[in-house]
Fold this protein.
Amino acid sequence: MKASHITSDGIDLPATSGAADSVQRGPSAARPFSQRHSVVAIDGGDVKQATIASQSALQNGATSLLFWLHREEDLTALTQGIRIDIAPVHLVGNMDPLKVKMAMDKHPNYQAWHGGFIMDPAENRQRTQQWFTQTLQGDMDRLAQACEILPSGLRCITSNGNSQSKHGHVAQIAFAAASLEAQLQHVGWHHANRCMMILQASDDYLGSIAMVQAARELWQSMLIKHQQANASLWVAGFTADRDASDDAANLIDTGMNLQALWLGGCDELLNQPINLSPEAGHWALEQQLVLANETDLKDDEPLRGSYTLDAWTAQMVNMATEHMDRWEQAGGLVKLLDKDSSIW
């Protein structure tokens, strides 16, 4: 059987195979829980409005919240009445772990809090040309402190692979894995079970599926290397960035993004609304709920065994590894960013 070919991410792949062809896939990093969560992002700047928005989201079916945190002391009010032992609560911002603990330790479910303490030093340095604490060492020390004093269910080692979406799927995987690796080299690989990776879909449907599969596979190979094979990886998937629009046809594109992230193996989905209207926010959540509850897509890796996707996944792993090896030879990702060197 003569193979036909497709090209994406600079990868030329056979779309069909002969009977004797096979692709060797490695094991994938374990998922942290069996269910999939539907996330709603909320700006915590206006605490009253943010509280109303979070309660409304949970009442309408959201199972996870992400707060853009402006002041640590606002956490007490923002999380009041939320079962943080059931619904993951993620925090994004320049956060002092001790202040977060002081604001949260009287919450009745504090010790069972799970979610993400999302503060990726590499992404922040690349985006703002600054470290959160003004120095790389200070950022790493802050993460070490977070791992020590915050509840064990909170993922304090996080990477924003989605920040590299303009460079393609492989770039997201490489950056995310290298950032996690740099953080664990400082805080210790015994914290590997506290890792979280954020990826972003593109309108390349199959490429987005392969990206998530490759991220889990690459990370598992690194866990095995560091004797942490049983650690899980929490993967959150965001739909693609788009210009605000009233065109309902964009809902089809976001729906395909969500499905690709789900099939690839994301643990959480965040659907970015097509515009800022309340209706668009409602549609975004409804799309996630339909996927979670009405499609019967339950398997962790339902497409493993697909020749094209397995080949695509394997090549993405290899290409991401090449990027990481190149960075390592130059001193490592965070060292390059510390020197304001280009990584691409």
Q: What stands out?
A: The longest strand covers residues 37-43. The CA atoms of residues 243 and 274 lie 8 Å apart.
